[in-house]
Amino acid sequence: MAPAISTIRTVTGMRRRVAQWRNEERKIALVPTMGALHPGHLSLIAKAREKAERVIVSIFVNPTQFGEGEDFDAYPRDEKGDLAKLTEAGVDVAYIPDARQMFAPGFATRVHVKGLTERLCGASRPGHFDGVSTIVTKLLLQCAPDLAIFGEKDYQQLLTIKRMVADLDIPVEILGAPIEREEDGLARSSRNAYLNKRQRELAPLLQRTLQDMAYDLAEGRPVEDATAASAFRLESAGFKVDYLEVVDPETLQPVDGVLSKPARTLVAAYLGKTRLIDNLGVKPKQRNRKRAS
Ligand code: PAF
């Protein structure tokens, strides 16, 4: 049996452990999570283990990234199960600070990344990205890793964190990891646990719609047409589409017309009360260019 994982719950304890690893010249990776670990998280951990000699996984269900009426209270929590998975995955430290460690009395700071955060998930979840950016800044300062890994499922979050780290000169490399999917294509997410049987059967249509849309866009169908048809398909099947957009993969600004360069399709849609997100890279098909005469 793998030895039980070391669990650290205080900022001071975490700093002490990192200082010890630094003395030993170990390369350190951080995988920030909110727990309820699933194979998607385990793939981030596997990548962290490939890249670094010591791996920290943080578990903190961050209240400041949930809006009013969102699922903070209902968010799945399973510390015992998570620790068993982390032990099995060979993680060195589970960092599990509580809210008092993270938000001392008088806490008054917010990190806001302008530009990337106002649209898409930022429009439907006001304050969400400030909550994420603030907590990730704190985790990076507390764990001082060489690298930190985030899933591409939260594509807007990944770009926001990269921007923030560059702007604040935080000395860490931010790596993205590809979306992990169920066998039927549904992106893995802790929130999939909320879906009832009928919704779970319907959920993979989100990914299939993105794939079909990517095909149409590559074939030269204008973005406006492809988007409208795909949104209609999802709504007709029982989704409530929050947004479905084709955007520039770096700036997240909408693109229109026939694709002339790679882009990304991002979607958020509700099945009942459960909000699912997904995304896919899209690119125009290489067409034979006429030779200049
Ligand atoms: O992606 C998540 O699970 C969270 O947004 C993160 C990065 C752990 C910050 O709370």
TrEMBL record:
Give the primary localization class.
Answer: cytoplasm
User: What does the entry give for GO biological process?
Assistant: pantothenate biosynthetic process
Q: Does the keyword Nucleotide-binding apply?
A: yes
Catalytic reactions of this protein: (R)-pantoate + beta-alanine + ATP = (R)-pantothenate + AMP + diphosphate + H(+)
Residue numbers binding (R)-pantoate: 65, 157
What InterPro entries does this protein map onto?
A: Cyt_trans-like, Pantoate_ligase, Pantoate_ligase_C, Rossmann-like_a/b/a_fold
Q: Which SUPFAM superfamilies would you find in this protein's record?
A: Nucleotidylyl transferase
Residues holding ATP: 34-41, 151-154, 188-191
Q: What is its EC number?
A: 6.3.2.1
| Keywords assigned by UniProt, alphabetized | ATP-binding, Cytoplasm, Ligase, Nucleotide-binding, Pantothenate biosynthesis
Active site annotated at which positions? 41 (proton donor)
Give the pathway annotation.
Cofactor biosynthesis; (R)-pantothenate biosynthesis; (R)-pantothenate from (R)-pantoate and beta-alanine: step 1/1
Any idea which GO molecular function terms this record carries? ATP binding; pantoate-beta-alanine ligase activity
Gene Ontology CC annotation, any one: cytosol
Where beta-alanine binds, per the record, is at 65
Q: Where in the cell is it found?
A: Cytoplasm
As a miscellaneous remark, the entry gives:
The reaction proceeds by a bi uni uni bi ping pong mechanism.
Q: What does this protein do?
A: Catalyzes the condensation of pantoate with beta-alanine in an ATP-dependent reaction via a pantoyl-adenylate intermediate.
| Self-association state and partner proteins as the record states | Homodimer.
Q: Which family does it belong to?
A: Belongs to the pantothenate synthetase family.
Name this polypeptide is given = Pantothenate synthetase
Give the species this sequence originates from. Answer: Methyloligella halotolerans
